[in-house]
Write a structure and sequence with these properties.
78 residues, OB fold (Dihydrolipoamide Acetyltransferase, E2P), five-stranded antiparallel sheet, 5 strands
Length: 78
């Protein structure tokens, strides 16, 4: 039965996990993983090899979702 509670319906529209962007440093095709450097400077190993080395990738839940555009990043202090 579908809920009529507006709050639960709204929560159902939200994504279940956060997405982040990082630069692909290397690809291990045998293991099916990629080493990615996040914008924070941390290196992580995630599953997926669909993005070439040197390009940015969208990441979520330890997986490469696809290629991300190469846009400039600005840090602003308030």
């Amino acid at each position: 039965m579908a809920t009529v509670n507006p709050w639960r319906r709204f929560i159902g529209l939200l994504p279940s996990s956060a997405k982040t962007v990082g630069e692909v440093l290397s690809i291990d095709t045998f293991a099916g993983t990629s080493r990615v450097r996040l914008r924070t400077g941390a290196d992580v190993v995630v599953s997926g090899t669909s993005v070439a080395v040197g390009n940015n990738a969208f990441l979520a839940e330890g997986q490469v979702l696809g290629q991300a555009p190469s846009l400039p990043q600005y840090d602003v202090e308030v």
